[in-house]
Structures are given as structure tokens and as C-alpha cells.
Specification:
Blueprint: E1 2-8, H1 13-44, H2 50-57, H3 61-64, H4 68-85, E2 100-104, E3 108-111, E4 114-117, E5 120-123, E6 134-141, E7 147-154, E8 164-170, E9 176-178, E10 183-184, H5 189-192, H6 194-202, H7 206-234, E11 235-241, H8 245-248, H9 254-260, H10 262-276, E12 279-283, E13 311-313, E14 320-322, H11 323-336
Parallel strand pairs: 8-11, 11-12
Antiparallel strand pairs: 1-7, 2-6, 3-4, 4-5, 6-7, 8-9, 9-10, 13-14
Helix pairs in contact: 1-4, 2-4, 6-7, 7-10
Length: 352
């Protein structure tokens, strides 16, 4: 499988300027593909493919200060995103766009803690060794203006070593609750830095505001990685509820839902399932909270008013339930009823 290894570039004034110039050239190529594609559709009703852009951009690499394969990668990425979003015109890349410079394996040479691209050498902080030869990659910029180099390398899949068979209920108080009563939780990072962030925003300190946002995102990502890795190493079957985050974002719990990062946790479990070779399923969790996991009667607290009830007793069989553990147990039961390799996106979604 292919994994991405990210390293921070050792920046100086010249390095930032060089990468910045290349990023502006990338934006120029992207906007050219965008404009050319729109004209082709309007004039000839023709959707240009990646290979249609190659003769149109031939010979531009030297003038733009980019590698020819980088220009091909930009055209390929543009076609992929156009199909993904199903739009005639994509968003233009300009001065406010974060820097991005894609490359292929023949574009770069990695030696120790340096990478050479287009005759220019960039040093980076080599926090870990690369597992193998570079397949493809990119230079990327974050909101604070810091540059990173990303290498995509092929790694071997890890053998299945876990024995746990669990269902997972995602929540705001405890971000991950397993059917075996194991809970993984962290503090609400948005609430923790709320006052400091508000002061920086009122004072108009843009740099400090971006730093606080980056700190929150990094802490959230670090916790999600550690938690999902532990689950991946100890489980052979993981069933996750398809929580409806969009509906919850319309309620008073919007900040807590955003801080919990449900989509991030699910995406990490999905790709780690491939590497660690465990069975990952995502099912419709509708009714799992109010259904008794013992007698399957819907006797639990329901609605937004019932969210504060963390423990309840079933009126049918008098079983005492922890709200989240009961939900994760029902999720696991529904997962067993789902054929392997056939996740259940049963909830219908309306197209915007």
C-alpha cells in the first residue's frame, strides 16, 4: 500500500521565495487548465482529459521554472477534481491559495535530509526514515506559511495481530466508545483555547490566530492517530456507526461536534484497516441509542432532550445501560448482520 510521509522544510528567506515562485507558476497552470476546459465544453461540448492538456502545455516548463512532469501532474489533478465535484468550472487559484507543487519520482532526488527539485536543493527535518523509494509527492504550504515536503512511498501491509471484535459509537463527551466498555476520550480542545482565540481575533492578531488554530488541529490529529492506531493493532473486526454530523452541526452542539472530528476518526480507521488487515464496516446507526441491547425494545431516552441522560434502565427487561456502550453494542450487532465487504450506507442523502 502507499503511505505519505511528511517532513517540514528548513525555511529561510530564499527557500520560501523559491517555493513561492514555483507555487505561483502552479496556480498559473491550474487556472489555464480551468479556463481551457470551460471553453472546450462551451464551444465544442468536449470534456478534456488529462492527456488532452499535454500538447497544450508542452514547452512551458522551462519558462515557468517547473518540471515538465509537474505540469502533467497539475493537469491530472485538475481532471480528477473536476470529476469529483462534477463542476464545469473549479475555483481559481490565486494569492490566497495555499502553496502546492506536485512532483513525480523522476522529478526529485532525495539524499539524506535534502531533496533536489529543478536544480534547487531543499533541506528538511528528517524525523524518520523513508521506508522505500519515492513514488510521487508534493511540496505543500500550511495556513501559517510553513512549507512541507510530502513523499508517497510503498510499504508492506502489516499482519493481523488483534483479537477484539468491537462496535464503536462516536460521541462528543467520549469521542470513541467501544462495545467492550473501553472508552477513548480527550478534552474539548475548542473550548480549552476558546478564550485565548477570542482575544487574538478581537485584537486583530492574524498570525497568533492562525497559530492557535494550527495547535488545536495538530493536537486533535495527534490524538486521533494514536487512538485509531491502538484500535487497529488490537482488533480484527471494527464496526462504526454512520453518525449524521451534518444534522448535529445545525444544533447547539455544533462546536462540540466539530471538535470531536468524527470524519477524521472514520477515515483513519478506514485506511488503517487496509494496512493492518482487519475488517472495517460502517453501518447506519439509526435507533441504536434508544434500543435496548438485551431485549431489543426501543425504551431508551430519545431526542435532543434525552442526550443528557447517560445511564438508563430498560422498562422491558430492567437492564441498566450505559448510553454509549449500549449504542456501540447495537452497532456491533447490526455489523454482524451485514455481509463482509458490503457496508450499509442505508441512510439516504439528498443531493444539494
Amino acid at each position: 500500500m502507499i503511505l505519505t510521509y511528511q517532513y517540514r522544510v528548513k525555511e529561510s528567506g530564499s527557500v520560501s521565495n523559491q517555493l513561492g515562485r514555483m507555487a505561483r507558476s502552479v496556480n498559473f497552470v491550474w487556472n489555464f487548465c480551468n479556463e481551457t476546459s470551460v471553453k472546450a465544453v462551451r464551444d465544442r461540448s468536449e470534456w478534456l482529459s488529462e492527456y488532452d492538456f499535454h500538447p497544450l502545455t508542452k514547452g512551458a516548463a522551462k519558462d515557468l521554472g517547473l518540471h515538465s512532469q509537474t505540469i502533467q501532474s497539475i493537469a491530472g489533478e485538475y481532471v480528477i477534481r473536476r470529476k469529483q465535484f462534477k463542476k464545469l468550472r473549479l475555483r481559481w487559484r490565486g494569492m490566497k491559495s495555499l502553496g502546492w507543487i506536485p512532483f513525480k519520482k523522476d522529478c526529485v532526488k532525495v539524499h539524506g535530509d535534502t531533496v533536489k527539485y529543478c536544480g534547487k536543493t531543499f533541506a528538511f527535518w528528517k524525523s524518520r526514515e523513508l521506508p522505500g523509494p519515492v513514488k510521487t509527492g508534493s511540496f505543500s504550504q500550511d495556513a501559517r506559511g510553513r512549507w512541507y515536503v510530502n513523499f508517497q512511498c510503498e510499504v508492506a501491509e502489516k499482519a493481523l495481530g488483534g483479537t477484539r471484535v468491537i462496535g464503536i459509537d462516536l460521541g462528543c463527551k467520549d469521542q470513541v466508545t467501544c462495545s467492550d466498555s473501553v472508552k477513548y476520550s480527550r478534552e474539548n480542545l475548542t473550548r480549552k483555547y476558546l478564550e485565548k482565540l477570542a482575544k487574538a481575533q478581537r485584537a486583530g492578531r492574524l498570525k497568533q490566530t492562525r497559530t492557535i488554530h494550527a495547535k488545536i488541529a495538530n493536537k486533535r490529529k495527534d490524538w486521533a492517530h494514536k487512538t485509531t492506531t491502538e484500535i487497529a493493532r488490537t482488533c480484527k473486526v471494527v464496526v462504526v456507526g454512520d453518525i449524521n454530523s451534518k444534522s448535529l452541526m445545525q444544533t447547539k452542539m455544533a462546536k462540540s461536534v466539530a471538535d470531536a472530528g468524527f470524519a477524521q476518526i472514520k477515515s483513519m480507521l478506514a485506511y488503517k484497516a487496509i494496512r493492518h488487515q482487519f475488517d472495517y464496516r460502517e453501518i447506519n446507526e439509526s435507533g441504536t441509542t434508544v434500543t435496548c441491547s438485551t431485549c431489543l425494545q426501543k425504551t431508551g431516552p430519545s431526542g435532543l432532550s434525552g442526550l443528557s441522560v447517560r445511564e438508563w434502565e430498560c422498562s422491558g427487561c430492567q437492564s441498566l445501560h450505559d448510553r454509549d456502550v449500549n449504542a456501540s453494542t447495537n452497532i456491533l450487532r447490526l455489523g454482524h448482520q451485514t455481509p463482509i465487504g458490503n457496508p450499509l450506507p442505508q441512510r439516504t442523502r439528498k443531493r444539494a
